[in-house]
């Protein structure tokens, strides 16, 4: 194959990737927001996820849901990122910073801020794997999707979600 | 706050991120994607360096022991360094292969297990390769003196070679014994301290990750 046609193929692939990423970019930001509290960490993680998605894209099977594939990569990268950076104490920052570096809907919404603070408080109490489950639950993904993304059985997902809800209720009652 | 409120807070976050992500689209421009650092790349680079160092040791020791086949102590010294070099290459190659097999598009639990296995492997082999220096420095020193000055350390100062082999072996055995002794569940603080100082905190962290994955896997 000539260099020119290889370059064209690559450009097509890049175009296809950018379109899909544009459609689903919120997944990247939500995963980054779930795992990182510091704005700088969040940007680093979002970049790392995007880079890994691009690297893995040639292996993506178009027959499968792009969002499922994207969640797998984003969560895998995020969990590894959090584990690798757990020695750095950068993300152990006040929760308030979180709320200031994401623009509010309109003006200052204290009630919404409080809810978000509570949400982060809950998320932060989960280990990285359970955090992935919590994110998928809050995203209202089906149990089948969650099972496919995490690599556990649907029965196991159902049991875990049951436990997750109980734990969330306890956490919120304590808070 | 009820579960429904938690979900509505999540949706509020979603709306905020929508505005935020519009500002951050530049992150995804291809040029930056290409330059972004893969998290496992430094580890892969370290393995390549380890393998190169192993090759240097193999080449030097092979030429050394093949030139001194008639002197058993020099032959043994050369073969020990040769074996160590081979182990460095093999461990580096296995680690590189484990890195190569990682496909982030696979299910989360499968990849996290693979990553934990990779980490466990390189931390353990790294510790083993490090501990070998209790005795390995001596054959290397013997090779060095012979190759550079033509001086046979064993013939000129056998007491030095024997005493250092003894000290190195005792040191190695004492380290291994102390490590086992510190494993006793009645000494949790000592265990933690030893883990952090002997293997760095890497092995302990790896174990806790493996335990976390096992707990998550259980229904």
Keywords summarizing the entry:
heterodimer; A: 175 residues; Rna Polymerase Sigma Factor, Chain: A; 2 domains; 8 helices; B: 219 residues; 10 helices
Secondary-structure blueprint of this entry?
The complex is a heterodimer of chains A (175) and B (219).
Chain A: H1 3-35, H2 39-56, H3 66-84, H4 95-100, H5 110-124, H6 128-138, H7 143-150, H8 154-174
Chain B: H1 3-23, H2 30-35, H3 41-67, H4 72-100, H5 108-131, H6 133-149, H7 153-156, H8 158-181, H9 188-198, H10 202-217
Helix pairs in contact in B: 3-4, 4-5, 4-6, 5-10, 6-8
Describe this structure in words.
The complex is a heterodimer of chains A (175) and B (219). Chain A is mostly helical and 175 residues long. Chain A has 2 domains: 1-93, RNA polymerase sigma factor, region 2, helix turn helix motif (Rna Polymerase Sigma Factor, Chain: A); 125-175. Chain A is built from 8 helices and no strands. Chain A has helices spanning 3-35, 39-56, 66-84, 95-100, 110-124, 128-138, 143-150, 154-174. Chain B is mostly helical and 219 residues long. Chain B has one domain (39-217). Helix content of chain B is 82%, strand content 0%. Chain B has 10 helices and no strands. In chain B, helix 4 (72-100) packs across helix 6. The radius of gyration of chain B is 25 Å and the shape is elongated. Chains A and B meet through helix 1, helix 2, helix 3, helix 5 and helix 6 of A and helix 1, helix 2, helix 5 and helix 10 of B.
Question: Quick gist of this model?
Answer:
The complex is a heterodimer of chains A (175) and B (219). By secondary structure, chain A is mainly alpha-helical. Chain A has helices at residues 3-35, 39-56, 66-84, 95-100, 110-124, 128-138, 143-150, 154-174.
Total DSSP E strands of chain A: 0
Number of helices of chain B: 10
How many whole angstroms does the radius of gyration of chain A measure? 18 Å
* Main beta sheet of chain B: none
Give me the strand/helix succession of chain A: HHHHHHHH
Domain count of chain B, please report it: 1
Subunit arrangement of the protein = heterodimer
DSSP strand tally of chain B: 0
Structural class of chain A: mainly alpha
Strand count, sense and barrel status of the largest sheet of chain A are: none
